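ok so for the tutorial part 2 we go from a plain amino acid sequence to predicted structure tokens. step 1 is just haveing the sequence, like this:
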Amino acid sequence: MRKVLLTIVAIGVLNFAVFAIGAWVLHGDAVGTHPRCPPGDYVENKGVCHQVSHAAYLFSKISGYSAIISMVLAMGASLILEYQKASAAVDPPQSS
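step 2 — the prediction. this is what the tokens look like for a chain of 96 residues:
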């Protein structure tokens, strides 16, 4: 169980890193694009719209949503790991 949870945390962090690097390279992300950008394959960063290829737009959209989902799962897995660690450290009550 511990290895599975650690794997989920690692995948979540790596997936977020891929999203962050992709957003840096593309100068924005497709998930946060506001309606002020024209219709089409645009990414936005700080209010500035940048036109990108359709493949880059799809990459940005998919990696953005998967980063959100995987980070939520990674945070949940890390909370479970911390709970398991804390509950293993608790001493049983002493009976007198």
